[in-house]
Amino acid sequence: MKKQLTITAIILFVFSASMAFAQGDASGVVKKITKSFRDKKNAEIIFDYHYVMDSITKTEVQEGTAYLQGESYKILQKEQQTVCDGSTIWTYLIEEEEVVISSTSFGDDNTPLKMLTSLDKYYTATFINSSTIVLANPEGQFKLLFLTIDPKKNTLKGIDYVASDGSKMIIEIKELKFEQDLKDDFFTFDEKAYPEVDVIDMR
What we know:
Elements: H1 2-18, H2 26-39, E1 43-52, E2 62-69, E3 72-77, E4 80-84, E5 88-93, E6 98-103, H3 112-122, E7 124-129, E8 132-136, E9 144-150, E10 155-162, E11 168-178, E12 198-201
């Protein structure tokens, strides 16, 4: 569950960074992320991701689709669906046929909006080269992030998350869409539609 929550948080950050890359100093790029985020109604991202446990062990590449709107988000994966309306999180474990309900009241950078608005305040941004930015904060939830960008198109191509144990999660962006027409209840989980699912309320 902890690993899956990390996936969720990283994907949400990818959304935010994708909206705002521009030429200039790394700190300036991060500052533009927060402004550009507020200019967008919502976003959709289609992505591939996998884990690199060490120099030999790698997990299978998996596909996913995620949606973000303000503090609300939905992430659809083969084994799991994660839905958040800004205050409540529903984590639907498909194979286990159970949904875990929790609250968003965790850390400062654990929800999309809080994470997004704290990047320029709590993270040190540095260009490694023209196509890579590193974000670092030894005390943060995400201690080290590598953004891969396309400097010619001003778009984000992917993000690598390096954990304290040296493992890495790699996310590759395949497609981005913005200003989607989403229904009012899109960012909620309809328990009535899954009558056979066990509900575990952790709030």
